[in-house]
Amino acid sequence: MKKQVVVIGLGRFGSSVCRELYALGHEVLAIDQDVEKVDAVNDFSSQASVANATDEKDLKSLGVRNFQHAIIAIGDDLQASVLCTLMVKDLGVEKVWVKARDLQHQKILEKVGADRVIQPENEMGIRVAHHVDSEKIVDY
Ligand code: ATP
Questions:
Q1: Exposed site from 16, 32, 68, 80, fewest CB < 10 Å?
Q2: What percent of the chain is modeled with pLDDT above 90?
Q3: Is 120 close to ligand 1, i.e. is its CB under 6 Å away?
């Protein structure tokens, strides 16, 4: 089933989520404050817009409230990440998944209502370890 997803923050993580969801056939609105990041996903999203993710007016005018799912991928600017999470939740987006850079960031995001918090490096590290572990069966 086609989903409506808004991806906010188009660094390495956000842009890769955006491209993959779009390739899978979903409707993807991509948002970043940096015009170059937005241009880079222009052909790999349904709509790509320059906006400030901490500005409620920007989020409202882009119709973020109409999306079922949001991925917020702002890692370095903790304040922007938290504010954006609060606003997107307040707008009524059902599932808000947010990237965190560390455990402290994760705890704050959980408190303000993030539905899922992702630490990509941690999760990928665990996944790679399991791949290595499962290879012992093949190697033996
Ligand atoms: P990566 O996924 O590359 O590891 P990162 O975790 O280092 O990224 P940042 O580089 O801090 O995260 O942010 C990712 C993106 O979010 C950047 O492209 C940046 O322009 C964008 N961004 C940061 N703050 C805002 C904001 N207030 N509004 C819109 N976009 C923002």
A1: 68
A2: 93
A3: no
CA 6, CA 45: separation in Å to the nearest integer?
10
Enter the pTM of the model. Answer: 0.94
Q: In 10 A of CB 126, how many CB atoms?
A: 11
- How much is the pLDDT for 135? 82
Q: How far apart are CA 134 and CA 131, in angstroms?
A: 5
ipTM: 0.95
Pocket probe for ligand 1: among 33, 106, 118, the residue whose CB has the most ligand atoms within 8 Å is 33
How many Å apart are CA 53 and CA 59, to the nearest integer? 7
Cα separation, 47 vs 10, in Å, equals 13
